[in-house]
Design a protein that fits this description.
single chain; alpha/beta; 6-stranded parallel sheet; 3-stranded antiparallel sheet; 9 strands; 41% helix; binds adenosine monophosphate
Length: 280
């Protein structure tokens, strides 16, 4: 695997490959890699001749400075994992290679950024959109791979690609879970043993609610029960929503495209998860 930390040599390398007609797949990450990230890398390897993964803990998307400070960084292990998965190129720039000045761009994703993640993490999607645009311009891949785990982010990136006419095919890869169902996340590394067990509440809630929705129990009633359950267990719930997977507008009843989304805190660690209602 070739490792680049500077933009210019990465560009030169990729230009040479592209001039030979080689297709490029791109997997942007913030590192502390797990099987979820690696499933994106594997999907890219199977569809492209060259796979580029980036590791960049993007400061502009953290609305909470403490979260940025405590974000896990495991570069040596990440390199080993990428190598054993068969990734061709790692791009891991320092912050001053990506941000030489404060960004002058402000995105407005309308309703998409005022609900759920957008509501609780002001400025987050603006930071995501800035860094994803920069990385897309640097790598200029044929395909880019994102995880359904960050479903709202997928919607934002879809919109970004459309509005800025990036010539990139987006691929959304299903959520990889631990054996007990917990969605894999770099932030899981921050959970202690007790918290790791508590964290299961998110997936359990999604599964139970899906069953109830399929048995025609109204979402609002179910939501009240979920809110009570979290408060009984003293677990901070940020949101629990049933939404249309196309535009993320709130739903009261199940449709073909209904998706359940949840976010909350186990101790100081913020976790998210989601589940399509009509999916095994
Ligand atoms: P992150 O490093 O958290 O920014 O994630 C990088 C990419 O990996 C994003 O597109 C995430 O949605 C994706 N990802 C994170 N966790 C998972 C998971 N458990 N399953 C599949 N993809 C994931």
């Amino acid at each position: 695997m070739e490792i680049f930390s500077q933009i210019a040599p990465l560009r030169a390398f990729l230009e040479q490959k592209k001039s030979l007609g080689i297709s490029v797949g791109f997997v942007p990450t913030m590192g502390a890699l797990h099987q979820g990230h690696l499933s994106l890398v594997s999907a890219s390897i199977s569809e492209n001749q060259l796979t580029v993964c980036s590791i960049f803990v993007n400061p502009t998307q953290f609305n909470n400075p403490d979260d940025l400070l405590k974000y896990p960084r495991t570069l040596e292990r990440d390199i080993e994992l990428l190598q054993s998965t068969g990734c061709d190129i790692l791009f891991c720039p320092p912050v001053n290679e990506i941000y030489t000045k404060d960004p002058i761009i402000n995105f407005n994703f309308g309703k998409l950024e005022t609900v759920m993640e957008g509501k609780y993490r002001p400025g987050h999607f603006n930071g995501v959109a800035i860094v994803v645009s920069k990385l897309f311009n640097i790598v200029q891949p044929n395909r880019a791979y994102f995880g359904q785990k960050d479903f709202q982010q997928c919607k934002i990136v879809e919109r970004l690609v459309k509005d800025l006419s990036f010539q990139i095919d987006l691929r959304i890869i299903p959520i990889q879970r631990e054996e007990d169902g917990l969605a894999m996340s770099s932030r899981n590394l921050r959970l202690n043993e007790v918290q790791r067990k508590e964290a299961l509440i998110f997936y359990q809630t999604l599964q139970q609610s899906k069953k109830q929705l399929l048995n025609d129990i109204p979402f609002q009633k179910m939501k009240n029960d979920v809110v009570n359950n979290f408060s009984l267990k003293k677990i901070r719930l940020e949101y629990f929503e049933l939404a249309d997977a196309e535009n993320l507008s709130e739903l009261n009843n199940v449709t073909d495209k209904a998706i359940l989304l949840i976010a909350g805190y186990i101790g100081e660690v913020r976790l998210i998860d989601n589940l399509f209602v009509h999916e095994n």
